[in-house]
Write a structure and sequence with these properties.
It is a single chain. The protein has 204 residues and is an alpha/beta fold. It has helices spanning 3-8, 38-48, 58-64, 75-95, 109-118, 133-143, 150-158, 175-186, 194-203, and strands spanning 27-31, 53-57, 99-104, 124-130, 166-169. The chain has a single domain, classed as P-loop containing nucleotide triphosphate hydrolases (Rossmann fold), CATH 3.40.50.300. The protein has a 5-stranded parallel beta sheet with strand order 2-3-1-4-5, sandwiched between helices. Helix 2 (38-48) crosses helix 8 (175-186) and helix 4 (75-95) packs parallel to helix 5. The two termini are 19 Å apart.
């Protein structure tokens, strides 16, 4: 039985504070291209949110991997396993009652499918982090640690699903303004959530 099915059957408690194994944590899911500003928003979210949250970026998982060079023929498999492990770590943290801010790049369609299968959909706040192409390219040049054109190549797929709970444009708003927008949304979250609607579309 999937996490969503267990929640629907009442086998899991909803998100909320307190000791014990019952309450699930909330997942604030920041999705956007490389250099779109997700990590900067996450930093501000941890400052402005009232409850304790963990910021767990996918880049942290890549950084934990051995520095030994991986043969090119093995690299796709290693990366795939890393992303799958990241999704399951987020699901596990939330299931244990921890609130999480995750920042991710849904540049391959299977990543969203995997998250839909793993996360309790009513416990996910799906945030679309947008940024104009020209600004993405400027940030890439300024950072110097990303391949040129990476963000532009990701643009077509990252937001292809088209549904979010909250959206922000980091070309127009600074990270703090985006974080406050998310915080204000949390005060009165509508139902169904974006994840619930995406699951409904997938099931037909």
């Amino acid at each position: 039985m999937s996490p969503a099915e267990r929640a629907a059957d009442g086998q899991d408690s909803g998100p909320g504070p307190g000791p014990g194994p019952g309450p699930r944590g909330l997942i604030i899911f920041l999705n956007g291209t490389s250099s779109s500003g997700k990590s900067s928003i996450a930093v501000e979210l941890l400052r402005v949110l009232d409850e304790p949250y963990f910021h767990i970026p996918v880049d942290a998982f890549h950084a934990m991997r051995t520095r030994r060079e991986i043969p090119p023929e093995r690299l796709p498999s290693v990366l795939h396993h890393t992303w799958r492990g990241y999704h399951r770590a987020i699901a596990g943290m939330a299931a244990a009652g921890n609130h999480v801010v995750m920042d991710h790049v849904l540049s391959e369609e299977w990543r969203l499918r995997d998250c839909l299968d793993l996360f309790v959909p009513q416990d996910v706040v799906f945030v679309g982090v947008h940024c104009p192409r020209a600004e993405l390219e400027r940030r890439e040049r300024e950072r110097g640690d990303r391949p040129a054109g990476l963000a532009a190549r990701q643009l077509a797929q990252v937001h292809a699903h088209g549904l979010y709970d909250v959206e922000c444009d980091t070309g127009l708003a600074d990270p703090l303004q985006c974080a406050v927008r998310v915080k204000e949304f949390l005060a009165d979250r509508p139902s169904p959530t974006a994840f619930q609607r995406l699951l409904g579309k997938r099931r037909g």
